[in-house]
Amino acid sequence: MSTAYTGPAFDAVDIIRAKRDRGTLTADQIGWTIDAYTRGAIAEEQMAALNMAILLNGMGRTEIAQWTAAMIASGERMDFSGLRTPDGRVLATTDKHSTGGVGDKITLPLAPLVAVFGVAVPQLSGRGLGHTGGTLDKLEAIPGWRAELGHAEMMRQLSEVGAVICAAGAGLAPADKKLYALRDVTGTVESIELIASSIMSKKIAEGTGALVLDVKVGSGAFMKDVDQARRLARTMVDLGRDAGMATVALLTGMDTPLGLTAGNAIEVQEAVDVLDGGGPADVVELTVRLAQEMLAAAGVHDADPAAALRDGRAMDVWRRMIAAQGGDPLAALPVARESETLTAASDGVLTRVDALAVGVAAWRLGAGRARREDAVQAGAGVRLHAKPGDTVRAGQPLMTLLSDSPDRFPRAAAALADAVTIEAGNGQTRPGVVDASGARPLVLERIA
Ligand code: URA
Question: Looking at the predicted structure, is the pLDDT value of residue 433 above 60?
Fold first, then answer.
């Protein structure tokens, strides 16, 4: 049930002027704005102007908390406090949210992995827009798998399997859905205040007991530098804590894609490889680290997630989780009809494979959508054959482009024209996020 705003009404232009002139909005002004916008009583151009004023002039901590609370109040709240296993044991809940990156399939192995240790994972996910992929688009590559679940179905699956990855219902923070679509087309996505309140309103309304935020930093992320990412993480952790949710954030590198795949079916396959005890080292490392954080936030400190990947326990939960949503976990995944391979131009050490360029290429190949109503190609994407740090020889395959529509290859290849750096020397120059020793760790910082 939404808790509609009942305070005094305002003039939208006065509120825009106040923020334009660096004023502080009151709780009533914010509550009225979000409520009136959700009802259609504030025009899109007025909200666009207010968003731009917020992007340029910011909001204080109290304003961000009030903005977030107003977005939560625009819709329903979920409640997992009554969740039990079929034999009556109380189930704690824990969730993870990534701010979005390229090749980020971590949710797929992570949700079943955490469930192995008796903590439930209600993972409400979205579809991709632009160059960052969407978890639901990836899972829909699995024949039969269904993203839309009713509330009762979701609770039953959490109780019986322990993990659900499904679409967030339209009733959860509807103000954010409308606002995010507007920000997307008005150059106002990159406001720390608006990103923090957007993400946290959905997570707090979802009602998870604990939350781990994976805040991506680098060329393929919203936050291009560590200072910005740290500010975003701090803001979100404070919002979560204030709402009574155990919340921590990891800042993780997104200068280069995670793993060796960016797409839908090819990312599912990579996730299954991880669940099978294999897969790329960076995907395994981040999956295990996030699982430890999610479990610790839910009060489980003695778990060994790496062992549960090696011994098949996480794979068992994955198969039950996919089957519970109509999917066939053993079915062959769709394969793109056409492919084109890009090769190394010279001998040397690969020092850079740009995440943003790979994400844009995968999107242009059909793995992502330009408009919400577009369909995605399950088999499309980019498969990497080498990662930064690898030695390569001229003519060696570096990436394979995959699509059902060969006419998409030239624009995808154009996106990748400057994506790769090969250095003749020993590869000591390492652009992007590096630590004091010049190395590029995957987890850059932990904010609690
Ligand atoms: N993800 C969200 O849900 N909201 C934002 O504003 C940015 C990323």
Answer: no
- The string of pLDDT tens digits covering residues 51-77 is 999 999 999 999 999 999 999 999 999
CA of 236 to the centre of ligand 1 (A): 12
Which position has the token pair 């957007």?
A: 198
- The CATH superfamily label for domain 338-423 reads Pyrimidine nucleoside phosphorylase-like, C-terminal domain (3.90.1170.30)
Distance 229 CA to ligand 1 centre (A): 13
Query: Does residue 202 carry a catalytic annotation?
Result: yes
Q: Is 176 assigned a catalytic role?
A: yes
Is the pTM higher than 0.90? The answer reads yes
Task: Give the 3-state secondary structure of 349-404.
Answer: EEEEECHHHHHHHHHHHHHCCCCCCCCCCCCCEEEECCCCCCEECCCCEEEEEEEC
Mutation to probe ligand 1, out of 125, 177, 193, 195 (largest number of atoms < 8 A from CB):
195
Give phi and psi for 148, each to the nearest 5.
Answer: -90, 120
Mean pLDDT throughout 13-42? 97
- Give me the architecture of the 94-324 domain, per CATH: 3-Layer(aba) Sandwich (3.40)
